[in-house]
Design goal:
single chain, about 375 residues, alpha+beta, 7-stranded antiparallel sheet, 5-stranded mixed sheet, 6 helices, 25 strands, about 15% helix
Length: about 375
């Protein structure tokens, strides 16, 4: 796997999966980081061919240091644990729906100082450098100092620029009544920050790629230090998975988990359909490993495909589990997407979605 940085020369536009027509909806939303479909399209545009390749990412990097999204299984710097795993919790007698993942609670052995609740105020990193993530994989823990942001850019390495667009009536100074005004959000990475992706083929760099809506340009540059950092994380993750026992699966890219119902409709949810709830009273006996989930609002994924006449048309919307989601399992279990050779299923992994890092569970002290 060869790792590259993508440094924008201007703002970037990655519109969300919502339909947009000026005059009908005046705001064009934008998502960031970009999804695997957008990145694969940019690389194929550079190669000038419809090439198939394995993509890993995207992530963020700064000064040749890989940054991953923070795990969502924390309140500030305090780790959360499933209620089923904390026998000393004073909430053990609480009633909850056994057909849903177990509630997450603060460990009974940790005393909160109150300031841990300030996670949303910018006191903690929202993106963690590879050395901190490596420590988390190796020890199963992170100290409060590991969360401390060196500057505001580690909380959010980009800013959103709102840009209005007007179309004037010919021969006048008035805006058109129909389709005459709309607003879109553009993304500008802060100085020193770039996107980072891994590809299983060597590309001659530096090279200019067109990325996102409007084809804004960015510089693709080979960056070997990122490869070394990712390989170290993969080694730690593999070791933890082979150890077995209670484990945490840390999702570092958007996770697309689809299920086709009998009526043919596809359903998405925040955790893999093959992972059954370990505590469910009924249900299939196999695959009952999932105890709890730490996640937040889904990420819309917009992509396109070609119809029978080779026309490019929008594909159905897909909603992915956000990167940083954490899954608590009784033992490590791989994804159906990794084990299935069906192109329609495995393509999500080829495009970098659903990348998991494994952590052996350690009881909090």
């Amino acid at each position: 796997m060869y790792w590259y940085t993508i440094t924008p020369l201007d703002v970037l536009l990655f519109r969300d999966a919502k339909p947009f027509t000026p005059g009908e909806r005046a705001w064009a939303g934008s998502v960031f980081p970009p999804n695997g479909h957008a990145l694969a399209g940019a690389i194929r545009g550079l190669l000038g061919e419809k090439a198939n390749f394995q993509l890993t990412g995207p992530f963020i990097c700064r000064q040749e240091m890989l940054y991953l999204p923070r795990p969502l299984g924390f309140v500030g710097s305090v780790p959360l644990v499933p209620l089923d795993w904390d026998s000393q919790s004073n909430l053990r007698q609480a009633l909850w729906n056994r057909q849903q993942p177990s509630p997450l609670v603060k460990p009974s052995g940790i005393k909160s100082e109150g300031e841990e609740e300030k996670n949303g105020d910018g006191f903690f990193r929202q993106y963690l450098p590879a050395d901190v993530v490596g420590k988390y994989l190796d020890t199963g823990r992170m100290d409060k100092k590991d969360w401390a942001a060196e500057d505001e850019s580690e909380v959010k390495p980009w800013k959103v620029e709102t840009r209005p667009h007007n179309t004037m009536q010919e021969g006048t100074r008035q805006v058109k009544d129909a389709d005459g005004y709309f607003v879109e959000n553009a993304i500008r990475l802060l100085d020193g920050w770039s996107l980072a992706i891994g590809i299983d083929r060597l590309v001659e760099t530096p090279a200019t790629v067109q990325l996102g809506g409007e084809g804004h340009r960015a510089i693709l540059q080979l960056c070997p230090p990122l490869s070394q950092q990712w390989e170290k994380l993969q080694e730690l993750s593999k070791k933890n998975r082979e150890t077995g026992g209670k484990s945490l699966a840390y999702l570092v890219t958007p996770g697309v988990f689809e299920y086709k119902r009998r009526d043919g409709q596809l359903m998405c949810r925040a955790w893999p359909w093959e992972w059954k709830l370990a505590h469910a009273v009924d249900g299939e006996p196999q695959g009952k490993v999932l105890v709890s989930v730490a996640t937040e609002k889904p990420v819309p994924v917009s992509c396109r495909f070609r119809d029978e006449e080779k026309n490019s048309i929008p594909a159905p919307q897909v909603f992915a589990a956000p990167p940083g989601s954490v899954y608590y399992l009784e033992k490590p279990v791989g994804l159906f997407q990794d084990e299935n050779s069906d192109k329609k299923v495995h393509v999500w992994r080829e495009l970098g979605y659903s990348e998991l890092l494994w952590i052996s569970y350690k009881e909090s002290k």
